[in-house]
Write a structure and sequence with these properties.
7-stranded mixed β-sheet, single chain, elongated, mainly beta
């Protein structure tokens, strides 16, 4: 086969002297060939297919395109590969005989050029192969006749990209990675958010020792038959993601995306805008849930952070990194397992229930008042970080709030109504809380709290043996107990934070740590402040102070701890 880049009339002119010389095996100037295939503009929009190089081109809908190449000698091996990208193609390969060189009179003079052009272009040619569809399809012949070959392509569905590769040395070229005898992808493990895939290595890597890497494509729509089809879904400048570090499988939806939620700036996301081609304007397409990652030469891989009970499609492509040409394994699909069904905890009217929630986890509770009721009160005490509470009555959402500390919610009741409570934990760590549901308005176990639950220490009143502190109260008369505990000088805020479980009551403290208890309230909320001086402390020592407020039902809530230090010299 020849490397040509000329228009057809000039191509035919060049063909004439080829047959006036003795026949020889097809060859190519390898140095020139390598230079030309590196120059992407060399074959751009050319109607001539080069020998041994893959070309990419574009078809407008219902507009056929024709390519040519010449085989000089009979019995020449020939392989042609056509790869549709984002639409099915109709293509046909045919051959015409080259014109006779001499006239019937044996003068040896070539026939006029116009007569030879007519002789070639007027002939229909012999059809060798035709195909219609979106599979990567091949024409392979170990012995092809000499002649002018024509490849006709047509897309009747839409404008589309495609790729063509032709060679007269298929045995030695082998640009496409070879598939193993079993080219399927196996799902070896299936979880609620993970799928583990395994596949047999390409013989191109294991036997021929050529550089092969594997690229995985994950989406929720369908399998892809070529990497070209994947690239058509994504933008042309969307680079392959880097392979994960050794020993760590990649989580493509850590992409915080494989769930896959799109952010508000989706218009600027790489990979999800179709670029304008050939002067035709195309509107931006919505973001697609499609991700790809190249993982080197591993042949087992775990995809994580998937959605439970969701079907995903997985495709694997072996890519020859020398030629950048790829071959598709047989894709597969799998549905992740369902979320484990949550056990629903029944709440009893007026009784406090302790709830533990794992990090990012959730718990479901149910409250069904035994009698008709006008109002329902939910009291929530979050022991550590804030938690999210949702309350539904007979399926209708009534409440959705974030709760930190103690909160009380009063909802309108309904006869024979059932309430479903969903509690969602913190992203920082495990959550603990106490919850009380009641249809009796006077049944309140949690004490009321001020908005500010800090303890203030007065530095000017600090002595070598005492400290003076103050805290806010409420209009409701409650019992307050203050406790102290000596700590090391290197006691820091991080240690104090770990001890901020507001649900631990005075019953967990040593009797020796108790300073005093007293009742306090004020009808004027602006004056609901109390002070206390803690005596009998050691000079230059650090102490952790805690104030507990105890409600009528006996339930206690701890204020924020305060670290104080006595003066060393007085």
């Amino acid at each position: 086969m020849l490397l040509l880049r000329c228009p057809l009339p000039l191509l035919l002119l060049l063909l004439l002297p080829l047959h006036s010389r003795p026949q020889k095996l097809p060859t190519r100037d390898e140095e020139l060939f390598q230079m030309q295939i590196r120059d992407k503009a060399f074959f751009h929009d050319s109607s001539v297919i080069p020998d041994g190089a893959e070309i990419s081109s574009y078809l407008f809908r219902d507009t056929p395109k024709r390519y040519f190449f010449v085989v000089e000698e009979d019995n020449t091996p020939l392989a042609v590969t056509v790869t549709p990208c984002d639409a099915p193609l109709e293509w046909k390969l045919s051959v015409q005989e080259l014109p006779e060189e001499a006239s019937g009179e044996g003068s040896g003079d070539p026939e006029p050029l116009e007569q030879q052009k007519q002789q070639i272009t007027n002939e229909e040619g012999t059809e060798l192969f035709s195909y219609k569809g979106n599979d990567v399809e091949y024409f392979v012949s170990s012995s092809s006749p000499s002649g002018l070959y024509q490849l006709d392509l047509l897309s009747t569905e839409k404008d589309t990209h495609f790729k063509v590769y032709a060679t007269t040395t298929p045995e030695s070229d082998q640009p496409y990675p070879e598939l193993p005898y079993d080219p399927r992808i196996d799902v070896t493990s299936l979880g609620r958010t993970t799928v583990t895939l395994a596949w047999k290595p390409s013989p191109t890597a294991s036997l021929l020792r050529q550089p092969i890497q594997y690229c995985i494509v994950i989406n929720k729509e369908h399998n892809f038959k070529s990497l070209c089809a994947v690239e058509a879904k994504l933008s042309s400048d969307d680079a392959f993601m880097m392979a994960p570090k050794p020993g760590l499988d990649f989580s493509p939806f850590d992409f915080a995306h494989f769930g896959f939620p799109a952010d508000n700036n989706s218009g600027k996301e790489r990979g999800f805008l179709k670029s304008s081609k050939f002067g035709r304007q195309t509107s931006p397409k919505p973001r697609v849930d499609l991700h790809r990652v190249c993982i080197g030469n591993k042949n087992i891989f775990t995809v994580s952070d998937l959605k439970p009970d969701t079907q995903y499609y997985f495709d694997m492509f072996a890519v020859n990194t020398n030629t950048n040409m790829s071959t598709a394994y047989v894709g597969t699909f799998a549905r992740t397992k369902e979320e484990a069904k949550q056990k629903t905890v029944e709440l009893k009217d007026g009784k406090v229930t302790d709830v533990f929630i794992k990090r990012k986890g959730a718990k479901f509770l149910r409250f069904a008042p035994v009698s008709s009721h006008q109002k329902v009160t939910f009291s929530v005490h979050s022991c550590l970080d804030a938690v999210q509470i949702q309350v539904r009555r007979d399926g209708k959402l009534l409440l959705s709030q974030s709760v930190e500390g103690v909160r009380q919610f009063q909802l309108r009741g309904k006869a024979k109504a059932k309430y479903l409570i969903r509690l969602k934990g913190s992203k920082k760590g495990a959550s603990m809380l106490k919850i009380l549901a009641t249809s009796r308005p006077n049944k309140q176990s949690f004490p009321s709290l001020p908005e500010d639950t800090r303890i203030k220490a007065f530095d000017k009143l600090r002595t070598c043996s005492s400290v003076t502190v103050a805290w806010l109260g409420t209009q409701e008369r409650n019992k307050f107990c203050i406790y102290k505990r000596e700590v090391d000088d290197n006691y820091n805020e991080e240690q104090k934070k770990r001890e901020q479980n507001q649900c631990l009551g005075p019953d967990t403290r040593k009797k020796s740590e108790k300073v005093l208890c007293k009742y306090f309230h004020s009808q004027n909320i602006q004056k609901a402040v109390t002070t206390e001086t803690i005596r009998g402390l050691q000079p230059g020592k650090s102490y952790l102070l805690d104030v507990y407020v105890i409600g009528h039902g006996g339930h206690s809530v701890k204020y924020q701890s305060k670290l104080v230090k006595t003066r060393k010299f007085c």
